[in-house]
Automatic annotation (TrEMBL):
PANTHER family according to UniProt: ARGININE--TRNA LIGASE, CYTOPLASMIC, ARGINYL-TRNA SYNTHETASE
Main location: cytoplasm
Recorded catalytic activity of this chain's protein: tRNA(Arg) + L-arginine + ATP = L-arginyl-tRNA(Arg) + AMP + diphosphate
Quaternary structure (record): Monomer.
Domain DALR anticodon binding, first and last residues per copy: 450-564
Arginyl tRNA synthetase N-terminal domain span: 1-84
Record motif 'HIGH' region, residues: 122-132
HAMAP family to which the protein is assigned, alphabetical: Arg_tRNA_synth
Entry's EC annotation: 6.1.1.19
Family the entry assigns: Belongs to the class-I aminoacyl-tRNA synthetase family.
Protein name: Arginine--tRNA ligase
GO aspect biological process, one term: arginyl-tRNA aminoacylation
Length: 564
């Protein structure tokens, strides 16, 4: 039953006809505290037409309302406050969660249509740093969230495997590297060459010219440069995969920038045919001055292609291949102008589906207030952070539960989960400073706190033994301490929908924290395992909380250990 709709239906019968059902629905609020009711309707909108003070209108209307199905309906100032029938509400909510289980909150908004998600996208021959974490886990979580609404995500790792940086790397390798050194420690040594190149190029600008020449050789099919590039790529992918395995992140396509090399000529041809390509200082551009933007640079003076050229080809390929309903790009906020240009060029080319391309920006992870930079060698390696997080988790597990079986597996789930949860609990547009000690705590607004709450709920259920909820007709929980938890359980489908519409995993993470906190308050004040007639209803609440907490964690890409 839709309890908000019950309030709407009740109000429709007493409000003036000119107030539409849609208006009523949009005006209904949820009071900040339960003592003010479960839903509230403000009467200010009626003051002008009824020529009365809002508080008097509220008082008059309460006298006309049929309170059947409600605990009570009262007016508080200008508001009509509805208190739901707690027994009917809790009985219905708990039955629905226990019946639907992991399908609770599912909807068919997407009708099975495809949504490519461009995510993670590390650069070949550079280590995965904390800077890569955000795109990876935000994209992974969005894929899981929209799946609940029956969209079909297509997760694409658009690897940075093409561009002038490979010319720089080849120059660096040929000047300072060796096969033996690279084979011994691929990523760190390739990074060393890259960083050294940038330092030396500050005093020797001719190195940049040499790097551009090597990249042009790659584009022209030179065997030596392509062999080096292929070797760097193979070594990098092996390293990346170990981290993706730890994060439990999987991709449908590893189609990096190089995949579009043979698809860019068609884009350039279309731009020429439509008269959009112009020459500017020897380069070829699309003029965007009508939008107060600098031009989109399609080809450099030496004929080499650019990032936007490959992105145009990628966008067209994804539309042709997946016939997407939306195409998402989980890329940092600093690239916002790039995606604005990308969509404008596609629109100029006559592709109206450009409107379905959505850039999902996110803020930076800083350390000590400073931005991470691979070019300057200022990086925090993601693998090292995960290792340190797991070590911290294991230390706390040893203190709290020294007899726990399979401590290493649990510590991996808690440590890695803590890092992922901490990222996703922040609004994605916000930047944040990373402090590992704050992340891996079992108390406070952390992933381990939510995991521990679920483990506590499962522990209660184990103590209770086998309980058959199927034959329980009455699961009404009358304990007032449980009311907040039950209302949160009922709100889960709305939370999923809101997170999907805003592409905002933090909505799920913040909800999980609220549900965990509410349940722990209930646990602290209630004798759940007391052997009385309300036992099965209370256990059904515990079971429902565990189901929804596990789903919430799963939507964030965080594991839920049964014991901690």
């Amino acid at each position: 039953m839709d309890f908000k709709q019950q309030v709407v239906d009740t109000l429709v019968k007493v409000l003036p006809e000119e107030i539409t059902e849609e208006q009523i629905t949009n005006l209904i609020e949820k009071p900040k505290t339960s003592d003010l009711g479960d839903y509230a309707f403000p009467t200010f909108i009626l003051a002008k037409s009824l020529h009365k003070a809002p508080n008097m209108i509220a008082e008059d209307l309460v006298g006309k309302i049929d309170t059947t199905g409600f605990e009570k309906v009262v007016n508080t100032g200008a508001y009509i406050n509805f208190f739901l029938d707690k027994k009917a509400f809790s009985n219905e909510v708990l039955h629905e969660v226990l019946t639907k289980k992991n399908e609770y909150g599912n909807a068919d908004d997407g009708k099975g249509r495809n949504v490519p998600i461009d995510m993670s996208s590390p650069n070949i021959a550079k280590p995965m740093s904390m800077g890569h974490l955000r795109s990876t886990v935000i994209g992974n979580s969005i894929a899981k969230i929209i799946t609940k609404l029956n969209y079909q995500p297509v997760k694409i790792n658009h690897l940075g495997d093409w561009g002038t940086q490979f010319g720089k790397l080849i120059v660096g390798y040929k000047m300072w590297g060796s096969v033996e050194e690279v084979e011994a420690d691929p990523i760190n040594n390739l990074l060393k060459y890259y960083v050294r190149f940038h330092k030396e190029a500050e005093d020797k600008p001719e190195l940049d010219d040499e790097a551009r020449a090597w990249f042009k050789k790659m584009e022209d099919g030179d065997k030596e440069s392509l062999a080096l590039w292929s070797w760097f790529k193979e070594l990098s992918l092996k390293e990346f995969q170990t981290i993706y395995d730890r994060l439990d992140v999987h991709f449908d396509h590893f189609t990096g920038e190089s995949f579009y090399n043979d698809k860019m000529d068609a884009i350039v041809d279309t731009l020429e045919e439509k008269g959009l390509l112009k020459e500017s200082r020897g380069a070829e551009i699309v003029d965007l001055s009508e939008y107060d933007l600098s031009p989109a640079l399609i080809k450099k003076t030496d004929g080499a292609t650019l990032y936007i050229t490959r992105d145009l080809a990628a966008a067209k390929y994804r539309k042709d291949t997946f016939d997407f309903v939306k195409s998402l790009y989980v890329v940092g906020s600093e690239q916002s102008e790039h995606f604005t240009k990308l969509k404008l060029v596609l629109k100029k080319m006559g592709y109206d589906w450009a409107d379905d391309i959505i850039h999902i920006p996110f803020g930076l992870i800083t350390t000590g207030g400073k931005k991470l930079s691979t070019r300057k060698g200022n990086v925090i390696l993601l693998d090292n952070v995960l290792n340190d997080a797991v070590d911290l988790a294991k230390k706390q597990i040893e203190e709290k539960n020294p007899d726990l079986k399979d401590k290493d597996t649990v510590a991996e789930a808690v440590g890695v989960g803590a890092v992922v949860f901490h990222d996703l609990k922040n609004d994605r547009r916000d930047s944040f400073d990373f402090n590992l000690e704050e992340v891996v705590r079992f108390e406070g607004e952390t992933g381990p706190y939510v995991q521990y709450t679920n483990a506590r709920a499962l522990s209660i259920l184990r103590k209770a033994g086998t309980v058959d909820y199927a034959d329980a007709k009455d699961l009404a929980v009358t304990d007032p301490e449980a009311w907040g938890t039950i209302k949160l359980l009922q709100d889960f489908p709305n939370v999923v929908e809101r997170a999907a519409k805003t592409f905002e995993p933090s909505v799920i993470a913040k909800y999980a924290l609220k549900l965990a906190k509410s349940f722990n308050q209930y646990y602290a004040h209630s004798k759940i395992l007391a052997d009385d007639e309300g036992l099965k209803a209370r256990l059904s609440l515990v079971k429902s909380v565990s189901i929804v907490l596990q789903m919430s964690l799963a939507l964030l890409g965080v594991k839920a250990p049964e014991e901690m």
